[in-house]
Write a structure and sequence with these properties.
mainly beta, OB fold (Dihydrolipoamide Acetyltransferase, E2P), 5-stranded mixed barrel, 3-stranded antiparallel β-sheet, 0% helix, 52% strand, binds zinc ion
């Protein structure tokens, strides 16, 4: 597990993106450096009850969150955090997750 989620920040104008982009949407720069964002606010939660082709599937909660840096990203939720909750972000095997801040 890695704390925070990797984002890509335009070297020129400092705008952060997730996922990675080829060109900056703001200044059309093409140089990025990675950065980490550790906190987000939950905007919307949905539950995946079934997955085709998957047996023994446990319902999973996913959330659309707005990071403290402004990106909107989709993360897996590891607890009962709902809309408006502040969550800490982490990554497991490249996938972004969130859970309530301790
Ligand atoms: Zn830029």
């Amino acid at each position: 597990m890695t704390a925070g989620v990797t984002i890509w920040r335009c070297v020129n104008c400092r705008t952060g993106f997730f996922p990675e982009r080829l060109l900056c949407a703001r200044c059309h720069g093409d140089k990025f450096e990675t950065d980490t964002v550790a906190e987000a606010t939950v905007e919307e939660v949905s539950v995946i009850h079934h997955m085709i082709g998957q047996e023994n599937w446990q319902p999973r909660r996913i959330a659309s969150v707005r990071t403290s840096d402004g990106q909107r990203i989709t993360v897996g939720l590891r607890d009962a955090s709902g809309p408006g909750a502040t969550v800490e972000l982490f990554q497991e095997e490249q996938a972004p997750f969130g859970r309530a801040k301790p």
